[in-house]
Write a structure and sequence with these properties.
The chain has 409 residues and is α/β, with parallel strands linked by helices. It is built from 15 helices and ten strands. The protein folds into two domains: 33 residues, no CATH class; 364 residues, TIM Barrel. The strands form two sheets. The chain has an eight-stranded parallel beta sheet with strand order 5-4-3-2-1-8-7-6. A two-stranded antiparallel sheet has the order 9-10.
Length: 409
């Protein structure tokens, strides 16, 4: 498949055969393909999210005593957005029986702090699963009835119309463990995406819709499908009509400057790189989707040296802090404006322990101690659209509560 960028590079070879008017047009097109804009960032003219939009993945659902403190940390860091799961299994534990208590509290607590909310939809209840009894055995499973799924999406969007900025529809469907232990199925995911998208657009047309973040993986088997292959299959199924923003995950494996070409040269898969999303952006360009923004729905570095599934790419706490700051700097230089929402993981679930691999990605350890990455992020400068928050020293009055924290608008 020939990309638009490649087509533009060949324009000058045929220019002499064009009419004068066509020649002018061809030169204009060629000039747009600037060497400093290899990802066609200039095509983003009306971004749903300012680049960068600093977001934190939070865990506010169960522990309301910790939720307020965690949201205050978000403001202390200078962030303006939180991403939070609204689990279907907790909101509709039985068909037609709804519990909005946790969701109502979170929406209000976020609004009270002038923060924006991005909600992740998913986590099918057992009664709605393709095979009842399997929902608790995997992370998530597709619903048997898309009408029930759409009703969940539409019910949430109608109740919180105008209060939720964006919805992430599902998570990592290219992994069997997030797809009912079934082989990844991009066509079925797009059907699920369409049902949810249509329900939300009816209930809250202003909400931004984001496709699921895909897990970077080298597998092409029943357990997982490579993220680039899965994304192309989604395009083949015309998924883009159901979303405003393409979601992606960018977990760190090495320094942020280490790219897919470097990983491939070193004998690893191209997915083994924080910059893997550059490959995904190229797929967007090849499918004439340059004007659509991307969102990083998860990124970070793990310090887990206990779990063998993660220990092989774990970093020290000092490196975690250094790499996260460098990742933001890289994104600002190279990925704006085509990357807007940029979601760091995590502010932790208070119930996590060292046995939970997620806890090692977090900015706070299970004992409540703030890790070096927290302080590094709090002090770094931030560019959010036209607003710049300058670097802050550790003794800045905002950190002691003597001054209110400044956040991105």
């Amino acid at each position: 498949m020939t990309t638009k960028t490649t087509q533009r590079r060949t324009t000058h070879r045929v220019a002499l055969a064009l009419t004068p008017l066509a020649l002018v047009a061809a030169v204009a097109v060629a000039l747009l393909a600037r060497p400093d804009d290899p990802f066609d960032g200039h095509a983003i003219t009306d971004p749903p999210f300012p680049p960068l939009t600093y977001a934190l993945h939070t865990s506010l659902w169960w522990d309301e005593n910790e939720a307020g403190k965690h949201l205050d940390w978000v403001r202390m860091l200078g962030y303006n957005t939180v991403k939070q799961k609204f689990p279907w299994t907790d909101m509709e534990p039985e068909p037609g029986t709804w519990d909005f208590s946790a969701a109502d509290r979170i929406v209000q607590q976020v609004a009270d702090r002038d923060l924006h909310l991005v909600v992740r939809l998913g986590q099918t209840p057992d009664w709605a699963a393709v095979e009842p009894g399997t929902a608790t055995a995997v992370i998530d499973t597709p619903p048997a009835d898309l009408d029930a799924w759409a009703n969940y999406c539409g019910t949430v969007a109608a109740r919180y119309r105008g209060q939720i900025r964006a919805y992430q529809i599902w998570n990592e469907p290219n992994l069997a463990r997030e797809w009912g232990a079934l082989p990844p199925d991009p066509v079925s995911y797009v059907e699920l995406l369409a049902a949810c998208s249509q329900a939300i657009r009816t209930a809250d047309p202003a909400a931004v819709l984001i496709s699921s973040g895909l897990s970077p993986t080298g597998n092409t088997d029943a357990l997982a499908l490579r993220d680039d292959l899965y994304l192309q299959a989604m395009y083949d199924a015309d998924f883009q009509q159901y979303i405003d923003v393409v979601g992606a995950h960018a977990p760190g494996f090495g320094p942020p400057s280490y790219g897919p070409d470097d990983a491939e040269h070193d004998g690893s898969g191209r997915w083994f790189s924080f910059r893997r999303i550059e490959d995904l952006r190229k797929i967007m360009l090849a499918n004439d989707d340059a004007a659509r923004q991307m969102a990083i729905l998860e990124f970070g570095w793990t310090t887990d040296t206990r779990n063998p599934d993660y220990a092989w790419f774990a970093v020290s706490e000092a490196q975690q802090a250094e790499y996260i700051v460098a990742a933001y700097e890289y994104a600002l230089r190279h990925w704006t404006p085509w990357v807007g929402l940029t979601t760091l993981i995590y502010l932790p679930d208070p119930n996590w322990t060292e046995a939970d691999e997620q806890s090692w990605w977090a900015l706070v350890d299970p004992d409540g101690k703030l890790r070096p990455a927290f302080f590094a992020i709090a002090g770094m400068s931030k560019t959010c659209g036209d607003t710049i928050l300058p670097e802050r020293p550790p003794d800045h009055p905002e950190f002691s509560g003597d001054e209110p924290p400044r956040t991105c608008p």
